[in-house]
C-alpha cells in the first residue's frame, strides 16, 4: 500500500488528571460551603424585649431551651414562663420535666405554666393560645432551638396574631446551643436536627402538614 494512502494514526488527546482533580476539589469545597449554609435557612432570631410570657417549646433533651428561658426570666424580660410538651411516657409529660428543670434553675414554681396537649409545633401554638388568652397576654418571647426557630416563629405568628398576641422569636443563641454550625454534617446529633427540620419544612410547604 502506498504511503500516501496509508491510514494516518490519530493522536490520542493528552489526559490531564490534574484538571479532574482540581474540579473535584472545587466541587467538594462548594458542596461543603452549601452544606454549611443549609441550617442558616432554618434560623431566625430577634433581640428580646419586655413581654407578658416566655413560651418554651419541647423537643430538646439537653435542656438548653429551659436554660435560655431562665436567663430571660431572670433578666426581667417576662414575669411568667409557659412550657409546652405533651405525653412522652406513662403519665409523664415533657412539660413537667421542663418545669422541674426551670425550678432547678431558680424560677419560682408559681411563675411556670404548662401546655400539655401539643404534639407538634402547630398544636403547641394552639394549646398555648388558650392559656395565653386566659391570662390576658398580649406578647410573648418564643424560645426554641436555633434550627427550629424560623418555622416556629411562622407558625406561632399565624396562630397568635389573629388574637392580637405579638410573637418575638428568641431562640437559644448558637454560641450556647449544643448544635454547632461549623462542620455540622460530621456529627450525628447535628445531622439529625437538620434532617428533621428539612423534612418538617417539606411537609409544611409542600404537603401542608403542620
Account of the protein in words:
The protein has six helices and seven strands. The protein has helices at residues 17-37, 64-74, 94-104, 121-134, 149-160, 188-205, and strands at 53-57, 81-84, 87-89, 92-93, 112-115, 139-143, 166-169. Mean pLDDT is 89; it is low at 26-31. It has a domain at 51-173: HUPs (Rossmann fold). α2 (64-74) packs across α3 (94-104). The strands form two sheets. Strands 5-2-1-6-7 form a five-stranded parallel β-sheet, with helices on both faces. Strands 3-4 form a two-stranded antiparallel ribbon.
Provide a short characterization of the protein structure.
With 210 residues, the chain is an alpha/beta fold. It has helices spanning 17-37, 64-74, 94-104, 121-134, 149-160, 188-205; strands at residues 53-57, 81-84, 87-89, 92-93, 112-115, 139-143, 166-169. The protein has a domain at 51-173: HUPs (Rossmann fold), CATH 3.40.50.620.
Amino acid at each position: 500500500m502506498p504511503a500516501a494512502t496509508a491510514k494516518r494514526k490519530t493522536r490520542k488527546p493528552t489526559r490531564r488528571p490534574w484538571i479532574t482533580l482540581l474540579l473535584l476539589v472545587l466541587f467538594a469545597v462548594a458542596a461543603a460551603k452549601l452544606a454549611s449554609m443549609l441550617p442558616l435557612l432554618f434560623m431566625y432570631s430577634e433581640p428580646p424585649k419586655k413581654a407578658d410570657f416566655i413560651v418554651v417549646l419541647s423537643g430538646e433533651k439537653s435542656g438548653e431551651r429551659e436554660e435560655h428561658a431562665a436567663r430571660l426570666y431572670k433578666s426581667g424580660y417576662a414575669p411568667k414562663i409557659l412550657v409546652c410538651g405533651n405525653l412522652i411516657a406513662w403519665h409523664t409529660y415533657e412539660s413537667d420535666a421542663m418545669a422541674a428543670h426551670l425550678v432547678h434553675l431558680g424560677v419560682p414554681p408559681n411563675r411556670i405554666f404548662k401546655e400539655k396537649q401539643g404534639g407538634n409545633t402547630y398544636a403547641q401554638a394552639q394549646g398555648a393560645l388558650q392559656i395565653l388568652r386566659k391570662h390576658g397576654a398580649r406578647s410573648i418571647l418564643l424560645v426554641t432551638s436555633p434550627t427550629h426557630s424560623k418555622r416556629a416563629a411562622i407558625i406561632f405568628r399565624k396562630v397568635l396574631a389573629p388574637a392580637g398576641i405579638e410573637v418575638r422569636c428568641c431562640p437559644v443563641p448558637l454560641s450556647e446551643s449544643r448544635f454547632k454550625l461549623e462542620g455540622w454534617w460530621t456529627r450525628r446529633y447535628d445531622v439529625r436536627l437538620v434532617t428533621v427540620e428539612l423534612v418538617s419544612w417539606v411537609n409544611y410547604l409542600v404537603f401542608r402538614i403542620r
